[in-house]
Amino acid sequence: MFAWLELRGGSIENYVFPSRIDHSRHLSTRQYARLVDEGVEAIGLRPEEYDTHSLRRTKASIIYKATGNIRAIQILLGHSKIENTVRYLGVDIEDALTLAEKTEI
Fold it and tell me: What are the structural domain ranges in the chain?
């Protein structure tokens, strides 16, 4: 991270991804979405099938599958209710049973 900041001429006080209009502000969500669309197109995928929200959900799903810690996911996503996180991830009875089978007492 420090190498990237040094390369682009920033410091640890600067945003890693500054706004293209006002470098003292962070990258806007719209600009982030544009960058994701461009990246998806650049590798030959259809932008309408991939968006910033699917990236957020994918990261949360990968962490959940690796750890089984739904409370940690709830905190990372900023959900106030665990039920929202369960719905968001699509956790079902099969997931619960798989975790139970992996856990030895």
Answer: 2-47, 52-102
Sequence-distant contacts of 88-93: CB under 8 A, at least 24 apart: 88/57, 88/60, 89/57, 89/60, 89/61, 89/64, 91/64
Q: Length of the chain in residues, anyone?
A: 105
**51 half-sphere exposure, CB direction, 13 A CA radius:** 5
- The CA distance from 16 to 12, in Å, is 8
- Dihedral of the CA atoms 18, 56, 34, 8 (nearest 10)? 30
65-104 pLDDT tens trace:
898 898 999 999 999 999 899 888 887 777 777 877 887 8
DSSP per residue over 53-68, as a string? HHHHHHHHHHHHHHH-
